[in-house]
Amino acid sequence: MALRLAAGFLDREHSVDVAVFKATGVLIGQLDPRARLVDLRGRRGVTAVPALATHIVRSRPDVVLSFMTAANGVAGLCEPIVRHLHRPVFVGSQRGWSSPVFGDMRTTLKGEIAYRAYRRGYRHLDGMVGVSEAVSQRVRASRLLSPDRVFTLCNPVIDAGSTIVSDVNSQEHHPWAITVVAVGRLEEAKDHLTLVRAISVLAPHHDIGLIIVGEGRQRGAVEAEALRLGVADRLRLTGYADPRPFLHSADLFALSSVREGLPNALIEAMNIGLPIVSTECPGGIGDLLDHGRLGRLVPVGDHQAFAAAIIDELLQPTGTAEDRRRVASGHTVERSTDEYLRLFDALELARS
After folding, report:
1. Which CATH number fits domain 2-156+332-351: 3.40.50.2000, 3.40.47.10, 3.30.470.20, 3.50.50.60?
2. pTM
3. What is the reported pLDDT for 45?
4. d(C-alpha 133, C-alpha 176), whole Å
5. How many helices (H) and strands (E) in the chain?
6. Which are the contacts of 323, defined by CB distance < 8 A and separation ≥ 6?
7. Where in the chain is the domain with CATH 3.40.50.2000?
8. For 274, left (φ over 0), alpha (ψ -120 to 50), or beta?
9. How far is CA 22 from CA 18, 69, 113, in A?
10. In the chain, which residues have pLDDT < 50?
11. For 178-328, CATH number?
């Protein structure tokens, strides 16, 4: 999301600095070369405040746009430090349904510290963007910002007029007659174990397999569950990879999350018109799928219902591919860039 918006701002001839807690990882190599990378050198949480505040004073940006809870909190905590030297507009972006600022993680000392510090930072922000109306409503309910300072803007996912474009062979052949693709970190919140169990229900009766594009701490658990259920040969874990060629060669897109803000992979799947089965979890999925009109929704954690929905959706897709593409077309990089720039101007005008 941040990288796509950075490219969008650069295309509008704005200069962009991208500050990161640590300049490592696969995404760093995807940063637009026109942007300047600012490495906060491994500082995380409140320990990053001095380094970021110093950069703000020295570089004098017009806007500081942050993404996700820790960065939002850190940016907000910089505001009282820099306000008398240089005061940009501070805008945060809330992507996830769960967050320390909502009190979801107060069961540990670390979670309690994050809760208190980040909530203090959020209150100094001029505005907060939710990636879906459901997320925005949760921010408003937290009372961290006044309701008129919380906005819902579209995610920058699709290039205008595009479908799937990749230099990877999009006609890759899979060993099964039916290929289900899921995209997401191998973490508990994504609940890929439910998908593996759904495939195990279908495997005795259908030549079906599951590809999960992503990496994470639950890789071992997912592999062990597939082995226990006798479907290890029906599972492929790609690790970190470009999901687009896998989506392009899929028969169905599956999303088994326990909670979601607004998943980009779902929008990408809709952009190519794939049949979709998803859990009806808290967040923005229901709105995106028009509450079941554009994809089948099943209860969280119910692998039997998920298995039945996969077959039903393959036999009789809900909605049309064109309807799904139309919804996805509302989440272009160009539209998102325009919406953010208009918001920056409005917040600057309100502050002046």
Report:
1. 3.40.50.2000
2. 0.89
3. 80
4. 38
5. 13, 12
6. 293, 294
7. 2-156+332-351, 178-328
8. beta
9. 11, 16, 21
10. 163-169
11. 3.40.50.2000
